[in-house]
Amino acid sequence: MIDALLNFEFIRYSFISGILIGLIAPLIGTFIVVRRLSLIADALSHVTLGGISFGMFLITAVPLFSEVNPIWTGILFSIVGALLIEKLRSSYKNYQEIAIPIIMSTGIGLSAIFISLADGFNQELVGLLFGSISAVSISDLITIIIIAVIVLLFILLFYKELFILSFDSEYSQVIGIPKWIQFLFIVIVALVISASMRVIGVLLVSALITLPVAIAMRWTKGYKQFIFMSIAIGEFSVITGLISAFYLDISPGGIIVVILVLLLCITMMYQGLLKGKVKGVKAHANE
């Protein structure tokens, strides 16, 4: 593994990208999950898939766009989808959750159309769907670095506002937190999903956003501790998944998700056993 990192650029690109994604995906996930908007990641991932398939269609149908990177069309579609979700949420104030299935269905429909027009699945599209350890180019890495810097700056600059929005949206309106911060947050979520496509896969990235958070919230009490533990779990799963994918020669996205699911199951089983022991001790004391 060390020899591969030293000798092959694409392996280094994948690991650097994975480390950055393991940082920003759970970080943004802590704010999404607390706000009970976990399904937004799924909706935007399907819209991103529509953008990717549109990029693939452009490459095959229009020679002028033969050098277009599908990641950029995926980012464009994801940002538009994020803004549409916010628009729909403001239009259906009493039924805000309806925005998510509307955008998700749109993304799936567009994906089906453009994949068919682009002559179906190919190896690059499969890699974008489920992740690939060999697909990250230097341009992809630069894009991921730029997005990671944007995400970190946004969180640092607006942490207080995001914290209030996450726990009490009504209070945020009372104290006058600008609505554009919420719009920017949704765009940031779209960027994180787009950045994660190459390594994790667009269909699996929502798991990296939500599962580390679901695990961390069972162990922590303070919010900052919650954020740091979510990031640590995300990094562990990504690095372990990439190493496993290298030796098993399979897509890393699936392994990363399975690792996270196993960690969640182990956490729930362990805490279940602890509760059982506590109840047993209390029952014995009452006797």
Topology of this structure?
Blueprint: H1 2-7, H2 9-34, H3 38-61, H4 70-91, H5 99-117, H6 123-130, H7 138-157, H8 159-167, H9 169-174, H10 179-195, H11 205-216, H12 223-248, H13 252-286
What keywords describe this structure?
single chain, 287 residues, mainly alpha, ABC transporter involved in vitamin B12 uptake, BtuC, 13 helices, 80% helix, globular
Strand percentage lies at under 5%
What's the quaternary structure here? single chain
> Helical amount among residues, as a percent range?
over 70%
The helix/strand series, from N terminus to C terminus, equals HHHHHHHHHHHHH
Largest sheet: none
Distance between the termini: 58 Å
Low-pLDDT stretches:
none
Count of alpha and pi helical runs: 13
Short description:
The protein is an all-alpha fold and 287 residues long. The protein has one domain (2-209): ABC transporter involved in vitamin B12 uptake, BtuC (Orthogonal Bundle), CATH 1.10.3470.
Describe this structure in words.
- The N and C termini lie far apart (58 Å).
- The protein has a single domain, classed as Orthogonal Bundle (ABC transporter involved in vitamin B12 uptake, BtuC).
- It contains 13 helices and no strands.
- The relative contact order is 0.16.
- The protein is globular.
- The longest helix is centred in the C-terminal third of the chain and has 35 residues, at 252-286.
- The model has no long low-confidence stretch (mean pLDDT 81).
- Helix 2 packs across helix 11.
- With 287 residues, the chain is mainly alpha-helical.
